[in-house]
Amino acid sequence: SKQIKVSLIGNPNTGKTSVFNLLTGLNQQVGNYPGITVEKKEGVCKLPRGVKAHILDLPGTYSLNASSLDENVVIEILLNKKDKDFPDVAVVVSDVENLKRNLLLFTQIKDLEIPTILVINMADRMIRRGISLNIQLLEKELNTKIALVSARKNEGIDELKKLIESYATLPTKPCVDALTFAPEYFDRLKKAFPKQSIYKLWLVITQDVNFRKIDKSQVTITPDFEIKSESELKRFQQKETIKRYQFINDVLKKGVFVDEKAATGLRERLDRVLTHKIWGYVIFFAILLLIF
Ligand code: GDP
Ligand code: MG
């Protein structure tokens, strides 16, 4: 029977593998991607209404401006609809304490127009850090569905499974237009390849510069089309990143609240407890010394 193909994507250390383990339990295996030594973890998850999902735990990546082999694995899968690992739904795993950095990749994945779910993991840390979220607003601004998860406490995983099961109804449109800094260049690209998503085209071009080997079956670039110089493309990539961070900052300002007092108050209380303990030890050893 048909399985829903799910890719877990995210920065390193956001809890992808922890979420993967909760979704798949013991139904998992570890291998390698063909031809390279990057580890490949895949498994099966049974969803609430009985459908099965094939889950792929992709290597950690900071952005789709690939510079490493790990990142290139992710991009090649996401660019190639014919790849057997091309996902029906992308689950981007983020860490509630590092949303700004984590959302850079999220906005790029959204540009690929794949159904996407945002997992905000490490929810167990929110109280201690004084963080609260307006999930509804974040969902609207980021044009996505959000699962608030604590992999450590096994919370929010059922909600995530439900979202995966309803992947066909998830929003697929981008959340920010990041390629607005060179209108003339991108207009020309659009005209040359009217059927392609402009962001995919852009990825292939930059990817090609970084690796000179990508499978272009998805996007054909005619040899006579002028491709910018490497340094110019790098400058464009920087402008793209700046655009994305401007958008992310605006969204986070509206949807994330950090109560510094709650955070520091707790730290002070912790400090006090610790100081008490230290005094306890000092007195204890002083008494020991006195006895002997
Ligand atoms: P990956 O690099 O994205 O695969 O992340 P891992 O699953 O290996 O987790 C990275 C670290 O974060 C590990 O030390 C986990 O124990 C920890 N971690 C994962 N999920 C949670 C969570 O929900 N809460 C907390 N507090 N820590 C977590
Ligand atoms: Mg991992």
Comma- or semicolon-separated keywords:
two-stranded antiparallel sheet; seven-stranded mixed sheet; alpha/beta; binds magnesium ion; 292 residues; binds guanosine-5'-diphosphate; 10 helices
What's the total count of β strands? 9
Structural class by helix and strand composition: alpha/beta
Shape: globular
Cα Rg: 23 Å
User: What helical percentage do the residues reach?
Assistant: 40-55%
What is the average per-residue confidence, as pLDDT, rounded to a whole number?
A: 88
Instruction: Tell me the distance between the termini.
Output: 76 Å
What is the succession of H and E elements?
EHEEEHEHEHEHEHHHHEH
Strand composition percent: 15-25%
- Low-pLDDT segments, ≥5 res: 212-219
Helix count, DSSP H or I runs of 4 or more residues: 10
Give the biggest sheet: 7 strands, mixed
Order of strands in the sheet with the most strands?
A: 2-3-4-1-5-6-8
Named once each, the bound ligands are: guanosine-5'-diphosphate, magnesium ion
Explain what this protein looks like in three dimensions.
The termini are far apart. It is globular, with a radius of gyration of 23 Å. It has ten helices and nine strands. Helices cover 47% and strands 16% of the residues. The chain is an alpha/beta fold and 292 residues long. The chain has helices spanning 16-24, 69-79, 99-111, 126-129, 135-142, 157-165, 183-192, 198-211, 230-255, 260-291, and strands spanning 4-9, 28-32, 39-46, 52-57, 89-95, 116-121, 131-133, 145-148, 256-258. Strands 2-3-4-1-5-6-8 form a seven-stranded mixed beta sheet, sandwiched between helices. Strands 7-9 form a two-stranded antiparallel ribbon. The model is unreliable at 212-219 (pLDDT under 50). Bound molecules: guanosine-5'-diphosphate and magnesium ion (MG). Residues 16-17 line the site of magnesium ion. Residues 10, 12-18, 60, 121-122, 124-125, 150-152 line the site of guanosine-5'-diphosphate. Belongs to the TRAFAC class TrmE-Era-EngA-EngB-Septin-like GTPase superfamily. FeoB GTPase (TC 9.A.8) family. This is Ferrous iron transport protein B.
